[in-house]
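Input:
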Amino acid sequence: MRQVLLLNVFFLFSITCFSQTTIDGALKTKEGNSVSGASVTITKLQTDDILDYGISSKDGSFSISIESQSNQVRLNIRAMGYKTLVQIIANKTQTLDFVLEEEATQLKEVIVKSDPITRRGDTLNYAVSAFAKKEDRTLADALKNMPGIEVLSDGKILYQGKPINKFYIENLDLLEGKYNLANSNLPHKEVSRVQVLENHQPTKILDSLVYSDKAAINIKLKNSYTFTGQAEVGSGLSPLLWDVNLTPMLFTKKQQMLTSYQANNTGNDVSQQLKTLTIEDLMNQFENNSEKQDWLATQQLSAPRFSEKRWLDNNIHLLSANYLQKLKKDYELRLNVSYLNDYQQQEGSTNTQFFTANDTIALAENKYNQLYTNTLEADLTLHRNTKKNFLKNSLQFQGSWDSQRGSIQTDNTPLTQNLSNRYFKLSNKLKTIFPIGEQLMTLNSYVGFNKTPQSLTVNPGQFEDLLNDGEVYDEVTQDIDLNTFYTNNALGFTKGWQSFSFNPKVGLQFEKQKLESRIFTNASSIQDNIDNNLDWTRSKAYFKLKTQYKKNNWRLEAITPVHLHSYQLNDKPLQKEQDFNRLTFEPRLSINYDLSSYWRVRAATNLSNQFGTINQVYYNYILKNYRNIQRIDAPLPEMQSLNYSASFRYRNPIKSLFFTLSYTNTTTENNLLYSNQILENGASELRAIEEDNKRHSHNLSTRASKYFRNFDTNITLNVNYSLQDFQQVLNSEITDISNQNWRLKGKVDTDITDWLSVNFESIFQFSKNKIQSQNNQNITQQFHKFNINIYPKENQYLGLKTEYIKNNLFSKNSDNFFADLIYRYTWQKKNIDFELQWNNIFDIKNYKTVNINNYSYIETNYNLRPSQILFKVRFSL
Amino acid sequence: MSKILFAFAVIISINQNMYSQELITDTSNYEVIYDLKYQRDSTDTDSQHEKMSLLIGDDYSLFESVNNQYNDSLLIALAENKENMSMKMLGSKMISQKKSSHFGFRILKNAKETLVQNSFNSNDFNYKDKDELDWKIMGKNQVINSYKCTLAKTRFAGRNYKAWFTNEIPISDGPYKFKGLPGLIIKIEDAQGHYVFELESFQKKKSSFEFDPQKGTEVSKKEYLESHNAYKKNFVSELRNSGIKVKGSQRRIQKKAQRLRNNEIEISF
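Output:
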């Protein structure tokens, strides 16, 4: 066998040798320089057929072997910048050197027109009809097919892998960050073109000055008048369930409107959709201190820490209307209104143990709460965005007519709580950018007024000793009203110099508040009224300089703000006042260094000061809830925190290995300690005393993940550890408290076959609480999830989700096993989705959780939603 | 002991290898724009298009997507102007994080070598590709886009290709990693027609370009392809690993993404 093979090889070799000629040579210029990169072809004499070819190397040499029977062949030399040389040569092995004549080569330039996607400057136009497929229904479906565009499952649109910064419909920004409402509901057949605006700077005045690497999307509609939308209807048992979502919309050249009505009693909290999504907006709210604040409360049941769909007993109606009108001179007027109505019920029991330095007090309560939410929000925005001018002014109103009713059954007597927690806010926010000389200045201004008229009535009356000379009585009512006026104004600009960038800003905040509260009892022996009449004035003048430096692998940022704070508190009837000024310097420094493409190190430190708010100083009692009455006759809390943090990151995509480690250390100095007096009936009373104290906290967390290619499996591990040490006054004694928490999490995702995947997740939590070096019982919680996803066909999905939760509580252990089943079928022809859900298959009735406070353990038994079946249909309007 | 010494020597030599390459700069004489028609999903006959550019200089040519080229030139412009405006510096900072496009590669070629730079999951990599392709010239001619072309065939990375080149442009170059024919490649496509590069324009253009072999991590082609495949297969969890929040059913997104990217230009190596 081997001999035959050898023989064959020999034959082949000899045959090729026999008819092969080799032509070697070198190419030079007249000056004797070698010519490289020239193409040397040997062609047949009669035709142009190439027999073989060579490309001249750096020294100008070439070597070509040809197989041909003919006696003569043609040799062609073509090179950029040289005259083409053609010569007929004999077909024999030979060496030929050539001298090439230089000549400006005029190559034919060609432009072929063919454009499926057209580009004009920074704008790309996609014709929707060319990209939409048969099964696609909404614009989001069609967008997914366009090259460069991706749509994530939460609706976020990416262009070239990065989130877009604006979503316009006919160049108008109706919904801002909530664009998914339009994108996932607008049928693509209404759209003619999708434009991608690359490097889009939404603020036109900054267009050529501030570079943007983000893209925006603009939707061009087919008709100047478009009415469309989508609907979803679902129903189920038991009790009778419904789930409705209707989203009609209207677009014309001058106006746009999108309305959405959603209602359900299936435990789906659709009010989440009204939440602010972008980080920028959340930051604004924080700065403006305009979140709704509840002073009074009914005793709540703490909700289980898993999906609300298992426990939320709701009856929600949400209406959201968005309207935009184009005005003259490039002004736009936009109105967004939303109305939310919800009725939630909570039922269950709690078992609270208050730990004091020498005693334990237990309290058992059965609770039934009814929560009524009634909120109206409106935002009227005037917007002008031109090359010369930027102006955005938003006038906002929020009104909440919320109320709650709570019934509590303790060991002896029934108790009712009636709460009205209303809240009203009116505010105006202005942002404008204008030039001063060559510099562009940014002015931000916020003015707001809000009011919280709230009241709590408890039957029977509580705190007899304090409120009614120790006599039992029927009813106690706490009324409270806080009026707040707040304004914040800042002016700033940015200047760059070499690798530095400077961003100075000056600003002034001013706040005026009036707190009025009164406790009424129906008893005859009326004491002096328990009133607060507190006037609060706060102002802050600030200068902030942000310096950034970036070079090579280093990135440094220093923020050096100076604040001048001024506080005046005055309760005239109680003859209490305090008054002080503070000058604070709150620097922040952060350093980023990229060690290599795999390793990154980051370190940061900052010093900051916080001062208390009006709900941390009031000179007379306020009944916060039926068993908590508070007064805080103390100086305003002042806190100074020093924070250090460091993190390492390792990312190796070659090995699919990722690892992060971070550590944070915070020390907070506090001027007050709170004393919590726990009375025999479980009621508590909070007082503040002046005593400097420190709170230390450490946090260490790490995460590692690795993908195993051979098994299509990803494994992730997380470990978190936190430790807090602080002091607290318990029953008149200063007590050292230490809390330790461990959290371990492991996760495995694996694809078994193309149509079957499973994932598994386990969490272990250990909590340890130590009071005065005396350990309390440890708490262990375990959460395990196991999901199976089956895709029998392209248009079908079957999922089984199971969850096992085990708690080692201080009185007894509990464990629960939940399972849900979901089946989805898409009728592709008609674009209709059908979905069948069976939730809580094992009909688990209630669930126990534990909350650990600084001085108490609270065990909650929460009644869950029963086993239920829901059928849903989704289609276009 | 000798083993340790040997390992040490290897490490040193690897290091030297890694840093032996210096910044390569060149200026183009011509630019060829190719329309790339491609089908990422082999089961789906709808194809997509992207514009690709081949800049031909005296010593090197650079091939990349037109979008990437645009980003690169912007980056240079920003770097030059950074004294003037700090926000521009900020812009350059932003853009320095390379965009992930469907074709993020940069391919630098001359007769001797083919260098590839590519990135995924915001990491840059460099590898050397095959220097020479084994072309077979077929005796078939055809006029394409007004150039008289000759047919040649080759096999590369698991696909058989038909290439039409013209000796009217005596530049031994072409789109992607294709080179070494006695004339410019006007059109090249694989046997299934999943990847088709066709000349759209050939024009004079003076434009300087550079290629920094030190920008990315040096890996072998095998290492690169293996990790890139794993990334594609599992890109949702890799995104999560790098700290990006991904909502919704991981499996669903992943399946879709896999389906959409099952048909890469290079099947084997």
